Amino acid sequence: NSPTNGYMLTAQSGNTGGLTWASAPTSVAGTLAMRAETTSNLSVSGNTQTEIVLQSAAVDIGSKYNSSNGRYTPGVAGRYFVSYAFSCLNGESRAGSEPIYVKIRVNGGGAEIGQGGQGGMDNSGQMLLSGSGIAVIGDTSSYISIWMYVSGNGITLANDQVTWNVFRLD
Using an 8 Å Cβ cutoff, are 45 and 154 in contact? Predict the structure, then answer.
């Protein structure tokens, strides 16, 4: 038979030596499932919780990232390692009384996983924020999202320097 897109060749049950077509998994445990990134500068308002919506998915096994709302819905229960790296435009320094928090959330609320605070400044005066955590997805409709709280004035995240990644663990 001719191959069908989205299917893989597998051994038939009972070890009969035959092969059959089966639905291919959307992502394989231990691999990068999704990598989202910016395609332009991204403004984040101050003094509010903001769900970060990145415009592009450079890697998206099974098309599970929604670039209109910034949510990754793996469709498979399990554990997922989530990491992010954000760079603010040069000169976006912050006073100690104006912290920034980045939060990894499941279904938009509840416990925050891998919450990270304000990062450091590199030699050019550019502020860097990064962090990671493990999200536990319990059903096929649960999603992972990244949120940011900026106290005081808003900030601008730099084009091509903002990403978040999801690796399926099991």
Answer: yes
Q: Beta-strand (E) ranges in 15-154?
A: 19-23, 31-37, 42-44, 48-51, 56-60, 65-66, 71-72, 78-88, 100-106, 109-116, 128-137, 144-150
d(CA 139, CA 144): 12
Does pTM surpass 0.85?
no
Q: E-assigned strands of 107-154?
A: 109-116, 128-137, 144-150
- One pLDDT digit (tens) per residue for the chain, 170 residues: 566 666 666 776 666 677 777 666 566 788 899 999 999 999 999 999 999 999 999 999 989 999 999 999 999 899 999 999 988 886 666 655 677 888 999 999 877 776 666 655 555 556 778 889 999 999 999 999 999 988 888 888 988 889 999 999 98
Q: How far is CA 72 from the centre of its chain?
A: 7
Give residue 95's identity as a one-letter amino acid code. A
Q: How many CB atoms lie within 10 A of CB 88?
A: 27
- Per the CB < 8 A criterion, the answer to whether 137 and 78 are in contact is yes
